[in-house]
Design brief:
Blueprint lengths: L13 H17 L1 H6 L4 H16 L3 H37 L6
Length: about 100
């Protein structure tokens, strides 16, 4: 079954998005008097910084690809170990019951 590809709602790289958020925070802090009059406060600033940090801490495509490759290697190792164990069990059964036995 083919997996659906994840598509973004925006056409910006994460680094550009973080850069824009940094610029916005810097501009708001520069003009804090005007923004305070419009209801901007420390709680909203912390909220904006937390959202920026969440985007910044999300792994990029290269990191996700490396994670996927590592997990695939682990899966292949586990599969090979299972195949080896099952092959030895089948060989024992064949030795005891014969190749085409229905037992």
């Amino acid at each position: 079954m083919k997996k659906d590809q994840v598509k973004r709602d925006f056409n910006l790289a994460d680094a550009v998005l973080k850069q824009k958020a940094d610029e916005l925070i810097a501009l708001i802090e520069r003009d804090i008097v005007e923004f305070t009059e419009r209801g901007y406060n420390a709680a909203k600033r912390n909220e904006l910084i937390a959202a920026r940090n969440a985007v910044d801490s999300f792994p990029n495509d290269e990191q996700l690809e490396a994670i996927k490759m590592n997990l695939t290697e682990q899966k292949d190792i586990a599969r090979n170990a299972l195949e080896k164990t099952m092959r030895s069990i089948f060989n024992r059964a064949e030795n005891v019951f014969g190749l085409y036995a229905a037992k």
